[in-house]
Design goal:
By secondary structure, this protein is an alpha/beta fold. The chain has 8 helices and 9 strands.
């Protein structure tokens, strides 16, 4: 089974000879729906009712997203409704019985990724995380290892001093916030397509419209995203001149945005694969070796 992700501003999805046909500016491909679990259509295009019906009959969920990866709509086949209830009961039961253990796994995965991406030894923090007795204590260590990651970033990209959120006080912070937000939207879509409740979180405390479980899911991939942003600036694909300043806030130009979206699309496969595998790993669920095709 596989998750199929199509990113195009001119896709056309239709049924042809019992298969799902997808035409984009890069060409035309045909897929057997029996091998799909979810279809993500990102950008703009059309999908026929015949194609939707075929997906529904095969139990394939459909997620429509804008070019900026914001969710426009999610279609869950009727036959999957039972599995939604079952999976959410499973999620709630795990949250009630093992919330701290799952949260510790999320932070441990993040620490391991920081070690991999930034070549630094954080084994001391892995040992400390294993012994924490509360979510607040765990969040304290998560903040410490994140600071270590951002300190390494600041040494590699001098215009970045420290992580700032509202407003982003330099171009690097502006790009980090944008990339993290794109990935949060993707994480939310993945959770919904797999019938999880994106608002029942283990590490973060979701409030209002904030899908805390989506934030949980992107924590282990933040080091990959952060190194991705660092590389863009080191290789001068993004430059300070591509940004304007409004008070303390740095704003991306249209040129910077286009470059970023194009580059982000190239790493999206890795991000989706990591989030999917991490999800099943932290929840200790059976993993069916699903892959992601772009």
């Amino acid at each position: 089974m596989s998750i199929l992700v199509i990113i195009s501003n001119g896709y056309s999805v239709y049924r042809k000879k019992g298969r799902l046909n997808i035409k984009t500016t890069n060409g035309e491909n045909s897929y057997p729906v029996s091998r799909l679990s979810s279809l993500f259509l990102v950008g703009g295009g059309t999908i026929t009712t015949e194609a939707i019906g075929m997906l529904s009959s095969a139990g394939v969920s459909l997620c429509l997203m804008s070019k900026n990866f914001r969710i426009k709509g999610i279609f869950i086949p009727e036959e999957n409704i039972g599995s939604i209830v079952e999976r959410r009961i499973q999620q709630y039961t795990l949250w009630k019985s093992s919330r701290l253990e799952v949260a510790k796994k999320i932070v441990s995965l993040k620490i391991e990724r920081i070690q991999q991406e930034f070549k630094t030894d954080l084994n001391h923090y892995l040992a400390l995380v294993d012994k924490v007795q509360s979510i607040s204590e765990l969040m304290g260590y998560e903040g410490l290892v994140s600071k270590i990651m951002f300190d390494i970033l600041s040494k590699s990209v001098p215009i970045f001093k420290e992580r700032s959120y509202r407003p982003p006080t330099d171009p690097v912070n502006a790009v980090l916030s944008f990339v993290y937000t794109l990935s949060y939207q993707k994480a939310k879509a993945i959770l919904l397509s797999l019938s999880f409740d994106p608002y029942l979180s283990f590490l973060h405390n979701g409030r209002g419209k904030h899908a805390g479980f989506a934030s949980d899911l992107i924590e282990p991939v933040r080091p990959i995203l952060t190194r991705f942003v660092m590389k863009l600036f080191i290789e001068n694909k993004l430059k300070e001149g591509y940004f304007s300043k409004n008070g303390n806030k740095h704003i991306m130009s249209k040129e910077a945005l286009n470059i970023l979206i194009e580059e982000y699309t190239d790493v999206l496969r890795e991000i989706i694969e990591k989030m999917y595998k991490d999800l099943f790993k932290i929840l200790k669920l059976e993993y069916h070796n699903e892959t992601c095709d772009l």
